[in-house]
Amino acid sequence: MTGRFTVQCGYAAYHANTVTVEAETLEEALEKAVEAANGSDAWRSLDHCGDTFVDAVCEGADADPWDPDAALPVPSRFTERGEPPLVTVTGPAKPAGGIEVSGGAVRLRFVEAAGTVTAEVSDPPPPPAGTPLVTVSLDDRGKPRVEVERGRARVRILDR
Asked: Phi first, then psi: what are they for 33, rounded to 5°?
């Protein structure tokens, strides 16, 4: 069945301001450069735009895609960041302990004889306000357990 959706799209337009600063360290130089650039009127357009991406989406015509009760999750491949890298962990051994990601996002695929589970792990944790958070974990029997917070989500777990 065909439906109507309201989708907010965007693209990044890049501007630059090249400054020269004196500093003792790289960190100090970057802090001074940001301050100097923000205090200057020398910004110029680079005439370069990024790819079009989706900011928000909901079902219905002329609806508010930012309404937390109506907003649908935007698949990673349509976001400004795009799909995160995929890391495949092949069984039968389960990871000992937790999985931690610093400064970005990865998709994890756990492949075992019982089936395949794919989940996204990131720092800071997704998702932005108004979109659901889906957590996939394995129960004591090794079966996938799915938890959805802040809304609804479509989850597909493939079993071999």
From this structure: -65, -45
